[in-house]
Amino acid sequence: MRNPRWGRVIAPPPQVFYFAPQKTWYLVYQGGDPLYSTSSDISDPESWSAPKPFFPAMPDIVRQPQGNGWLDFWVICDDKKCYLFNTDDHGRLLRSETDISRFPNGFHNTVEVMAEKTEDLFEASNTYRIANTHTYITLVEAMSPQGRYFRIWKSDSLDGKWEPFASAPMNTFASRDNVDQLWSEGVSHGEMIRTNADQTMTIDPCQPLEYLFQGNDPAVHVDDYIKIPYRLGVLTAKGENPVSALCPSALRR
Q1: For the chain, which residues score pLDDT lower than 70?
Q2: Whole-prediction pTM value?
Q3: How far apart are CA 163 and CA 171, in angstroms?
Q4: Residue 190: which of 234, 158, 225 has the closest Cα?
Q5: Domain count, the chain
Q6: 141 within 8 A of 215, measured Cβ to Cβ
Q7: Structural domain of residue 139, as residue ranges?
């Protein structure tokens, strides 16, 4: 871990990316339902448009079975479609889709792509394409008695089946074992540091693997989640890992 930053971080964080087909920046966030704003100049904080919903109404599947709604939205596109992933804090990962030519409109076909116990598949999913491969990975935050942590799955397409992508117990990607426990009890809401900013969410397996996340100070105890003094840190992978193993030079060894 390096470069911790103190301050209040309120989950869930938004997603920001550059949608190259429109030469437009998108800010994706939640207000009960998934919302977005756009800008042609990301350097101007006053340039963002007013919030707009992705869906005219909440899909029926989102209301079932617990009726808890949806949260923590993430958009990623291939060359034909854009997909919106979300969790529901009850063990489900859902996916919606639209043609890339219609984005941000036309999202439909909302389906359940993973379902586990609530504590094993909780929230804050984030999904990426591995450069120069046909592999995608998705990370989802889980909960354990030792704090929050991220699990990792892989697929050969964004609309395909997700399989565990780590030999660690519970296919763990990052946990309290990866940080100084005096600094954080676990690893919460995070995002890969990428070499590009576009809608493909591509990461380079040949570059050092870095993950920006929010951690909580174990010495601070509060009775309200919203008051937890989260702070930002960066995890940097050391040694071999399943993502870096997809670098062509690693495959030739």
Answers
A1: 1-12, 64-68, 251-253
A2: 0.92
A3: 10
A4: 234
A5: 1
A6: no
A7: 12-201
